């Protein structure tokens, strides 16, 4: 069982692992062993998630899912298949926790009086600086 949150648990039976050859350097060993691991989780058909949770996961993780609602997490960081499998599970748990965390509602706030005052003072200083740069109007002096 994989614990996502206090209330959400996903059994290992719902996860599928697909192995393949990793890319990158590694000599002859990389050409003969399947160390890259892809964790496959069908969000659409999962009995462990509620309908509301499925909507949340599909909304936040839609770029990692295909059209059928299947989530894929790949790991090829390590040279061993077991380490990559553990890394994929860890990343899957992190992604699911993030996706199932509710978004805090924004509370609109007013602009503080001090900020308005500082803004107006800054504008006045800038205006004064620009007035000082002007060439004097000689016609008014006579």
The CATH first-level class of the domain at 2-100 comes to Alpha Beta
Q: What portion of residues is helical? A: 25-40%
How would a textbook summarize the main sheet?
Answer: 3 strands, antiparallel
User: What is the structural class?
Assistant: alpha+beta
Flag low-confidence runs: none
Based on CA atoms alone, the radius of gyration comes out at 29 Å
What's the order of the H and E elements?
A: EEEHEHEHH
Strand content: 15-25%
Description:
This protein has 142 residues and is an alpha+beta fold. It has a domain of 99 residues: Double Stranded RNA Binding Domain, CATH 3.30.160. Helices cover 39% and strands 16% of the residues. The protein has four helices and five strands; from the N terminus they run E-E-E-H-E-H-E-H-H. It has a three-stranded antiparallel sheet with strand order 3-4-5, with helices on one face. Strand 1 and strand 2 form a beta hairpin. It starts with a strand and ends in a 9-residue tail after the last helix. The model has no long low-confidence stretch (mean pLDDT 84).
């Amino acid at each position: 069982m994989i614990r996502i949150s206090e209330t959400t648990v996903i059994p290992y039976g719902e996860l599928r692992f697909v192995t393949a050859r990793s890319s990158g350097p590694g000599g002859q060993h990389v050409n003969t062993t399947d160390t890259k691991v892809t964790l496959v989780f069908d969000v659409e058909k999962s009995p462990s998630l509620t309908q509301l949770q499925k909507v949340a996961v599909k909304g936040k993780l839609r770029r990692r899912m295909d059209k059928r609602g299947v989530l894929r997490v790949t790991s090829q960081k390590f040279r061993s298949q077991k380490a990559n499998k553990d890394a994929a599970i860890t990343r899957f748990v992190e992604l699911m926790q993030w996706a199932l965390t509710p978004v805090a509602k924004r509370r609109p706030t007013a602009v503080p009086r001090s900020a308005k005052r500082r803004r107006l003072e800054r504008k006045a200083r800038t205006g004064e600086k620009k007035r000082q740069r002007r060439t004097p109007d000689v016609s008014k002096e006579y």
